[in-house]
From TrEMBL:
Source organism per UniProt: Paralvinella palmiformis
GO biological process: DNA integration
Transmembrane segments: none
Pfam families listed in its UniProt record: rve
Gene3D superfamilies in UniProt: Ribonuclease H-like superfamily/Ribonuclease H
Span of domain Integrase catalytic: 3-113
SUPFAM superfamilies per record: Ribonuclease H-like (SSF53098)
GO molecular function annotations of the record: nucleic acid binding
Protein name per Swiss-Prot or TrEMBL: Integrase catalytic domain-containing protein
């Protein structure tokens, strides 16, 4: 079960963050999955920001914590890809895409960055 699964409306919020540490030879990209109720953050380092890499890490996160009822993300091309739509249908969660003009709609994930 997702971390806040005993709370009505269990929800996971997604966002990316990047490492700009000059001591690291390559810039790292991280996928953040934030439990909407508990504000618990799950972090996965990505090799690429392609939707296939995002999906693989989402599957690992969902295997660990369970599938939430709702996943909220921004409208990045990784999240809007047809593969993510198929994952949502297959896994049985509702995928909500927030407005790019209103990043506060995904506030928990934005604050975790």
């Amino acid at each position: 079960m997702w971390l806040g699964s005993n709370i009505q409306g269990q929800c996971c919020r997604l966002d990316f963050t990047f490492s700009n540490d000059v001591t690291i030879p390559r810039r790292s990209t991280y996928l953040l999955a934030v439990d909407n109720y508990l504000s618990y953050v799950e972090i996965a380092e990505l090799d690429t920001v392609a939707s296939s890499d995002v999906i693989n890490h989402l599957k690992l996160i969902f295997t660990k914590h369970g599938i939430p009822e709702t996943v909220v993300s921004d409208n990045g091309s990784q999240y809007a890809a047809q593969e993510v739509v198929k994952l949502a249908e297959h896994q049985g969660f509702k995928h909500v895409i927030g407005s790019p003009q209103y990043p506060q709609s995904n506030g928990k994930a934005e604050r975790a960055v």
